[in-house]
What does this fold into?
Amino acid sequence: MDLLCDTLMLEEILLRMKPKPLLRLRATSRRYNALVLNPGFAGRYWPRAGVFLQPAVEHRQGAPPPSVPRFLAAVPALQAADHHVPAGLDLAKDGMTIVHSSAGGLLLCSRRLPTRPAARYYVFNPVTRQRRALPKLRGLCYKPQCGLLTVAGDGARFQVVVIEEWQVEDVFLELKIFSSDTGRWRAKNLSLSVSVSRSLFLPFGHDFGRQPVLGPSGAAYWIQRGYDGDEVAIAFQSPTNSLRIIDLPERVVGGGSDRCIIGERPGGGGLRFARADAAALEVWDSDAMEGRAWALAHRVGIAELLGQSADDAARRRHHRSVKPVGFHPTDVDVVFLALPSGSGVAAYSTKHGIMDLQCTYNCFAAPADVFPYVHPPYPIQIPAIQNLTLELPRKRKADDGTFFETKNGTSSLKR
It folds into this structure.
């Protein structure tokens, strides 16, 4: 009888519950805790995988508030296969309007654009809606260009690296680093120069206007034009605070960085690169994180991709075609593409050759950043911050009135 009751609980009740009350139930008894952590149940309930599409944020004072990030799962069949599992994630209820990075099922967010001379960041779980406020970051010389979150493999600690806006004359990166082990921010400089034959030089042109592409490993990637005319990628690895240069496939030399994107292969263990022009879309893979031995994984003509005839393709050649904007973090088959004429963003299957429209945001009129996100098949908690002191505890009432912010910056349940 107990086995039958547990089966009914798993199939008919727990799968229909939202994460917050489910975690409450887990804390009431060992039996319910075992049910929530049941591998079969957890594998169906907790996983989410996709990308957050963050509409461009203006850096000028008085700019309108940014649009809430959109979560693109690229698997509409998920709900059809199991209607109990929600595919979407909504950040609006918690006021997290800007996503900066993601790692280990957590997000680095803010409620408004961080500006000089101070910034406030939050580590946020968009599934359970748990959040933890970081101490205010002060002493910025320039506006933050990006923030990178990394979570330790054991899930017991995390690190945030904020890179300040790069200037043309800079030969080093200005980094602000926060560790949950210390509960404090510290400053660090990282040289952009490379030593060759006892001399220092910058192996790339200084053009950092575009936001970087972020990978699940905590790396940030910029595509730049080298001084020899070839395009290269710069990778900053936040866990080790190191910088490296990545060579791109030869066929994309001089192709223009506005139509290129580089990222990490789903599942790790290499890099993925995509490029589009008026003629074709190409996807390349490399087994090495240094970008050696690139192999062409997929190529499709733009006319075929958009379902156009040869005459239509010739007439539209002078218009913007498609632009790769991101890779799915777990599905090696999916590339996210911005479509022409402001049609929106679609998930393109390289295996089946079909596109599925994800949203109608126009990435050509106003750029957007794409952040890969994966929530593992088990509930995760935000690591505790040691020695944390916040200036002023501010109560925040959620829509349902169940959450408030405590002195240590966590979100707690009202009893």
